[in-house]
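Trying the structure run again after the queue cleared.
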Amino acid sequence: MALGMSALVFYWVLPRLAKLFELPWLSPPAPQLWTIAGTALAWLAIWLADRSSEDEHDGPLLRVLKWIAGFAIRLSVRHPWPILGSVTAAVAVSIFVVTQLGVDFLPPFNEGSVQVNVLLPPGTSLATSNRIAGMVDERISQIEGVIAFGRRTGRAELDEHAEGVNVSEIIISFDSNSGRSREAILEELREELTQVPGVVISVEQPLAHLISHMLSGVKAQVGIKLYGDDLNILRQKANEMKAAMADVPGVEDLMVEQQIEIPQLLIKLDRVRLAQHGLTSNYVNEFVETAMNGRIVSEVVVGERKFDLLVRLDDKFRQDPSLMRRLSLNLPSGGRIPLEDVASIRRDSGPNTINRENVRRRIVIQCNTAGRDLSSVVTDIQKRLDPIQKSLPAGYFIEYGGQFQAQRESTRVIGLLSLISLAAMFLALYTLFRSTNLALQVLSALPMAAIGAVTALVVTGQSLTVASMV
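Done. Tokens:
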């Protein structure tokens, strides 16, 4: 029965999971390899197991395992104190080693591709953005180890991650047979793209990028959120924080969220004049919105396709305040008046975007890490930003987000669940044995199991992550 269930999982469940996650080792002739591997493993299991139930002889593998277990038990019974002392020392060393390990949220993984985000100043036109992104494309194509890449400039307003045309996303695939390491290609990639004038770049793997954005809305591993009311003070302090973080070892792709002053056309209504003419502010607002942004009034059918019919002012009228002032408003009593009779129109500047979180205006300083673990980098950043944080005006404060925040919360949850699991295991063992001594003896195997886990982390050079904690 057990062998049949194992075969069911091996032949039916695992191949479908592999297909679901598009694992490369399922491609042809992988089905034949699965059959051969499964058959070989089944025969190997039969050969190693007890094949003679009549005379009740143990199989070769079971005899070896029994001999090792018996030798270990006899040795520990004859020399209990040296064994206990050695185990205690090993556990203590493991605990010390854990405190010295680097801490990350997720273990490093190689997706075989990277995502390069190219940011231009807000308000950059599509033509300019496309031209500069073309310069970036040319530099990428000259890097050894890059096999293919594709670019997307801007995202639609209804997209789940809407972006302006000043933002380009480039997905780059690496050639695994180029002989170059991923780290070497990324280093050259950053060096080449930082030489393009006027652009800010960040480099991250596509899946890691989505995870970071999903966790805290920050498109980087580390996001430092500065909250306050005055945008000018926020920008000033954010630039100070960026300068303080710039030379922290391990910090890459450092940038401040693009909240800047951009040219705007300011239309201020005169409510007294509106009342004199019998007009409402809502009517004038809708009139201006239609003139500037347009309004869909009908549909045009061409064959089997439908297109929205948008009505708005021509570009030259929308960009010239003097022409805007002469736009005619219909009065309720009949007749027309120019827009300048009930509103003042002038050029001004204002923030390109206003981002709030928990009803507070905020600006984000973000970065990725390279060459060091996440926790060590954030610890050094906190030391650098501590003087700036103490000098912030009243009502301004800093929060740390991104994968660092998720790692801390996950560690706290895992620790709490581990304590609950230990208590549940103790209750189950006590219910079974009706002895506190026997229950504790069984649980004493857990610290010894941790020795092997810590040894594996040290040998493989891995940091402490949520996966390794589990």
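The longest strand covers residues 360-369. Worth checking whether this holds up in the mutant runs.
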